[in-house]
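Review box. Two proteins, two foldings.
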Amino acid sequence: MKDSHYDVVIIGAGMSGLAAGIRLAHFGKKVCILERHNAPGGLNSFYSFAGRKYDVGLHAMTNYVPPGVKGTPLGKLLRQLRIERDEFALCPQKQSRIAFRDCGLKFTNDFAVLDAEVAAKFPPQAAGWRQLVETVRTYDDVSLDAKPLSAREVVGRHITDPLLADMIFCPVMYYGSAQERDMEFGQFVIMFKALFLEGFARPLDGVRVILRVLLEKFRAAGGERRMQCGVARIIEEQGRAARVVLDDGTELTASHVISSIGFAETLKLCEPPHAAEAEANTGALSFIETISVFRRQPADWGWGDDTIIFFNDSDRFDYSRAKEQADIRSGVICLPNNFAYGQGQLPEGIFRVTCLANYDLWAHLPEEQYQADKKHWFDAAVRSARRFLPPVDDAVLAQAQLATDMFTPRTIKKFTGHFNGAIYGAPRKIRNGRTHLPNLYLCGTDQGFLGIVGAMLSGISMANYHVLQGSARS
């Protein structure tokens, strides 16, 4: 029979929950991770369909730096989790682009490329751009008690051309903002550094490599993991989280509870409930994503240079909840074949397109209508994205196509539990991870560290700050 009391219970086996579990288990804590689904990873997982494995969430792992570069989030992560760099087998991107209607900016894992592009295409903005970059470099983005600032306001002090401002915000928002049309400046700094000052990479075999490493580290450290084992309630007694009740009615007790499932989602589990507080900080930004699989490599059609393309064809970039089921005016193209894999290569061509969507317009459709609408928006999103790539005849692509799939906000809600299918969770982040209960903490998306590396650092930080340092203080 499994034990029912733990030093720490962690809700959710996503990147942040796994990282928190590894960190705590390394220091002898008795830890149990509870996951409702049958696969770990949360927002960054994978699934099998018709004999193929598809990544979910992982376009690229941000915060990449070459070996030997010190003082970066990636280095801190590897050190804190006792992971050798080679275990993640990261392969850097080739190049990426920000592609707007009348202007484009290239960037790579060498910041000098983007720096030169901005200076060449926006000469009057060069001085302000340099000031912004210096502000980003010196800002303390890991402070757990920083006061919130509007990123639009801070960027506007340095960048006066609205086109350049929109081009900077497009990648940063698509890869991390839970807020419409703006984001908190600390969040902006985290993503600016992760995308532009550091960069993109991925393992040849995708997110499964990262998950295998994390699961093995957790197992080797003595942690316990229960899959297909969701939490139904968190019971408050004498002002503390006293018990967690599982979906099957089993009860566990713990000295500390760390939740990676989101702020609103966590508060709605609590008894007594905190529904009003949860609803006041529930996210609304969701996505659709199309996945096309081809028997040929993208390079065969002239699509071999770009790894990620952030596109927009509107007069202004509008990062907000879609008015229709999807907003295909802007989005993200990911070509996973276009990383520097060395001697390796993906056996099939992959083409992914991500666009903003509206959860309410997908959530309650009858199945036949849902499938028809998926097909409509799949075709529309792909057509919109292809405008930003070298032209290829439709018949050529159709002949080479092997498989397709698509997820919607409804899919996101089903497999992550995030209300409204909100990819990046609550618009207001809880940087110190504290809740109304002194032994219930948040990690992951709603704590505020972003991206895969950021999620893992969130788990580490909350484990260190609330449990390990707390134990030392007491």
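Next protein.
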Amino acid sequence: MQDLIIGFGNVLNAYTLAWVACGVTLGYVLGAIPGLGKATGVAVAIPLTFYLQPVAAIAFLIGIAKGGTAGGAVSAILLNTPGEPSSVPTALDGYPLARQGKAKKALKMGLFASVIGDFLATLLLIVLAAPLAEYALLIGPVELCAILVFSLTFIGALSGHSLIKGLISAALGIFFATIGMETETFIPRLTFGVLALEDGISLVPMAIGMLAVAEMVIQAGNMHKLDAQSASLLSGGKREDHVVTFLDWKACLPAIGRGTAIGSVVGILPGLGASVASFLSYSVNQRKADKPEEFGTGRLDGVAAAESADNAVVPASLIPLFALGIPGSVIAAILISALVLHGLTPGPLMFKEQPQLVAAVYAAMLCASIFMLLIGLLGQNLFARIIHVPTRLIVPGVLFFCCIGAYMDTGDVFSVYIMLAFAVLGFFARKLEFSFVTFLIGFVLGPSVELTLRQSIQLLDKQVSHLAAHPIAVLFIVATVATVIWISLKNLREAQVRHRRVTGLK
């Protein structure tokens, strides 16, 4: 508590608060523009924080993440064009509401649900991260290796519509993480004589290429369709269509509560991410509703359920990152490089080595939640107009900043080439429906998996029987095998059902 008070003292000044507000505003704007989103904003903005103070820099990036998550509801509701998979459930009921002339009501409820879910999940982060980190100090390389393998299996299985494609994406991420100096012998690996690859592939240009550049190429291909959707929006004239009434709150508060709980739990589990949380929250609240058949036709509680879960994931996903050093989402994975850059290495030791900096980050996150509400209320009409900007003006500007961001990460033009190469990979991955989430988590966790596996082999003296002295590791190994078997059987049953349906039609 003393550190938290000091942290608020370090944050409650004009300089830091201004950067928090800038981050939330920028994130909200990026979230409102279809196809950009929080991950793109954070990835591009990391090089821009090189000359900021550590607290202000981290607060700025977290503000982008929080604002981008809330702003994603704008494009989903007004254009039926979710910029991220996690915004799809919001569009299911938000867009019908917009077509009924209730766009402002849907936007406001989405904002309120976002702020509530985000704020409560941030409090959960403050309460759970440090105690979990103290327990994590008892976890050695063997246990950590088992946890990492379990995380990789879990995300590979649950991200996307195909188990095989999810596992392939995670494996490709691990493969690209092996490029560079080998961890024990320091022999160049898969560099093909290119000196710039000996340090490995940097996360920032890779993420910018796969996220932003690939998305801009797809946006350019759908330019006329997006512009036509923007021009066809309806606007209601009744007061009830623009405000959230008491009856609306009464109907939506249970959905917000369930969504926040689901988003927090999903965020803590490494690798699941906001997409799982928002879809799960939407389906749970649909089953709990008195008229579930109305979901998808313009239910305000459907928007609240999806947005509260979506926004709760961002702070909750930082719990495994802070406590174990394991990213719980794409945002957490991208933030690793920024945290290390500014002197805060994720993991259990940071609570002992940098307690005041951690507390300052907590304070900045709480302030970001408040700014998210204020900026959303004050500028919601303006943000709604952003989606009317022609796509032909958005694409060149985003591509320019992508090149600048990739170059500033290393100061080498080779980073731009890396960005372009992964843009091609990201484009085909999206077209073929391969999961970027599992790829990125695999890329981030790959070096840790390799290092802990090598350490475990040495500690166990190459004897599997020595695992008996590590019950936590055995538990996660059993959970990994059980998860693979369960999901494989589930996919097999679904394939058999589809086969019978096709056979019946014939």
